[in-house]
Automatic annotation (TrEMBL):
Source species: Gymnopus androsaceus JB14
Keyword Signal among UniProt keywords: yes
Tree of life domain: Eukaryota
Keyword flag Signal: yes
UniProt-listed InterPro entries: 6-blade_b-propeller_TolB-like, Hetero-Diels-Alderase-like
PANTHER family according to UniProt: NHL REPEAT-CONTAINING PROTEIN, NHL REPEAT-CONTAINING PROTEIN-RELATED
Protein name per Swiss-Prot or TrEMBL: Calcium-dependent phosphotriesterase
Signal peptide: 1-19
Alphabetized UniProt keyword annotations: Signal
Length: 342
């Protein structure tokens, strides 16, 4: 795999998008291109290790890689290939360096998935890269289609959420026992009409300050919304009705929340990374635009975790693998320190 390293400051413009009663407008930020992959790579998911490295999952092969954002000469390391699968669409850290990865069978060309193909794997990265990652299968999902967004409910109990974007439901999995069941299925997780794309995509827990209620926030790719549902803090089951937080976010994929509840999201078809204010719902376009191919098919975001990366937003793009104009997938770092409370 040939990888080139670019550093650039990109000031992006856009025509703006509508968000409820507020118009989106541009507030371009400094952006570093950490790694620009060649045209054979299509990225999908992103997670950040406590030590600062980025973990990326591929959308056109069953590969998991690590990227060190601080090494100038390039440090991209292969972690694991999930034999018998075609994509990696979910990455979640439960304990330090204990990752859980969702692998499925899906054609990147036709987007046709294989019912009953997905599995969740435990990837122990303690000591990586000096020591190889230890990988074992946790559970096979015989009734799932595309396992995607994931979130921790309880580290102590080993409970996590696992979204199925093709079925439009959210499951709960005990990673210690492999027991799993469908937990959330409502009008904001699902797909209309059925079999017409992706429903629930990203899922994240959030508890507002001075609020005793914990919420599960979720993005719905097809509906272009981010909604939330109050949940029981121990079981993860819903305890109230879901509510739309923000709408008209065209093809919203993954997102991240800061401590105030501001939303940082990737809008795939608009090639944009945006911020949604938790109070006003104003949309700020941080980078990209429909006519800017630098961020072709923006897909995933995650905040940095080291002191030097505090407030920085890491972001990945698919890169247009199936498009006539394939610019290659990319890993970027957005300077959002003045816009995020982390």
């Amino acid at each position: 795999m040939r990888i080139s390293l670019l550093f650039a400051i990109i000031l992006s413009a856009t025509n703006g998008i509508l968000c409820q009663n507020a118009s989106g407008y541009e507030v371009p930020v400094k952006v570093e291109t950490i790694y620009h992959f060649n045209s054979s790579v299509s990225l999908e998911k992103l997670a950040i290790r406590k030590s600062g490295e980025a973990i990326v999952g591929f959308d056109n092969s069953p590969n998991l890689y690590q990227v060190d954002p601080d090494l100038i000469n390039g440090s991209v390391r292969h972690i694991h290939t999930f034999e018998g699968y075609s994509v990696v669409h979910g990455i979640l850290e439960v304990e330090d360096d204990q990752f859980y990865v969702a692998a499925s069978n899906l054609s990147v060309w036709t987007h046709i998935d294989v019912l009953g193909s997905p599995s969740i794997f435990h990837v122990n990265m303690t000591g990586f890269p000096e020591h190889p990652a230890r990988v074992r299968e946790v559970v096979h999902f015989p009734n799932a289609r595309i396992l995607n967004g994931m979130e921790v409910i309880s580290k102590e109990e080993g409970l996590i959420y696992v979204g199925d974007s093709a079925l439009g439901v959210i499951n709960i999995l005990n990673v210690n026992t492999g027991h799993h069941y469908m937990a959330i299925n409502n009008s904001y997780t699902t797909i209309y009409p059925l079999d017409s794309g992706n429903g629930v995509y990203g899922i994240h827990l959030f508890q507002p300050q001075n609020d005793s209620t914990k919420y599960l926030y979720l993005s719905n790719f097809q509906q272009g919304i981010i909604a939330r549902v109050p949940i029981h803090p121990s079981s993860g089951l819903p305890v109230g009705e879901p509510k739309v937080v923000v709408s008209n976010l065209t093809t919203v994929a993954e997102f991240a929340l800061d401590k105030e509840g501001n939303i940082f999201a990737a809008l795939l078809s608009l090639n944009q990374f945006v911020r949604v204010d938790h109070k006003t719902k104003e949309v700020l376009v941080l980078a990209g635009g429909p006519d800017i191919d630098t961020y072709t098919k923006a897909i995933s975001v995650a905040f940095g975790r080291t002191e030097s990366d505090k407030g920085k937003l890491y972001a990945v793009t698919i890169g247009g693998f199936t498009a006539l104009h394939n610019v290659g997938a990319g890993l970027f770092r957005l300077d959002t320190e003045d816009m995020a409370v982390v």
